[in-house]
């Protein structure tokens, strides 16, 4: 930090991405150290007063998210709290102080353990996808601050490569879907079943017949239910109409109107609201199950029935047609049927000649 140049010691350090070099006007090492500490502390205080405190901006961002992204607001609020706790531990106050190195360390801290599990014996590493969601949130916050004219520094998250999130989603077979519904119906009959367990079968069937997201189906209100369609508020506050088929109408018709929500579930926005039920189904199936797989199944069923990708995309509420393709899976039966169409076709002379060559 300090080094002698000529007659006097000089201090050389970085603060808020700016380099500070200053003479200490002394040739005594002890006195130079004292003066250097004062200069560094003063420079950092000034930088923090001029910068954009994360705590202040996060409150502004969350208020914006509550109005514009209500479906993900609670999740983002929780993750912002985790990021804030880590920043406090590192002594970082302003957004401008973050560097790619800090982002890497934050990611490692998030990956180290799952903070939501209270029992130490059950702690586990957070998934790579979870770590990516935290970095994506921080990147969005930084970009939002830049868009609002509160920040001009380059985004450090852009220099950090996200984790590869693993294998392609394995779709459920029709037999597994039927088994999952059977298990859900069995759980509903248990004497001490929770409100979620008693309603899970109808939730799963409604997702299969509409393709709704978890947050959309759990947040569905009776005011959003029409005679022929649902009015759904999706990601980013985008509103779309989802038509109702006969099975979906039957599900809604048998639901009791005990509250403003179609599914009266406590803590509907909580992280673990579906954890116990989905873990039970996963054990019974022998494969990992979560509600989002039924949204994939709905897309695959429509595609297999000949529905075009544009229509499927509009029903699911995707902003890009390419995302819809990721949701549409084939099956071994459809693949075998596709190959069977190749048998019996006569090759042309030209094709036969190419093969011989």
Brief account:
The chain has 357 residues and is mainly alpha-helical. It has helices at 29-50, 54-68, 73-90, 100-112, 128-147, 174-188, 195-210, 214-218, 246-253, 275-285, 292-304, 309-316, 321-327, 332-340, 349-356, and strands spanning 2-5, 8-15, 18-23, 229-233, 239-243.
The radius of gyration over CA amounts to 28 Å
- Cα separation of the termini: 72 Å
Count of spatially separate domains: 3
CATH topology of the largest domain: hpI Integrase, Chain A
- Give the strand tally: 5
Q: What is the chains' assembly state?
A: single chain
CATH top level label of the largest domain: Mainly Alpha
Name a few traits of the molecule.
357 residues; mainly alpha; DNA polymerase, domain 1; hpI Integrase, Chain A; two-stranded antiparallel sheet; 15 helices; 5 strands; 53% helix; 8% strand; elongated; disordered C terminus
Can you describe what's shown?
The chain contains 15 helices and five strands. It has 357 residues and is mostly helical. The chain folds into three domains: 2-50, no CATH class; 54-159, DNA polymerase, domain 1 (Orthogonal Bundle), CATH 1.10.150; 174-337, hpI Integrase, Chain A, CATH 1.10.443.10. Strand 1 (2-5) and strand 2 form a beta hairpin. The chain starts with a strand and ends with a helix.
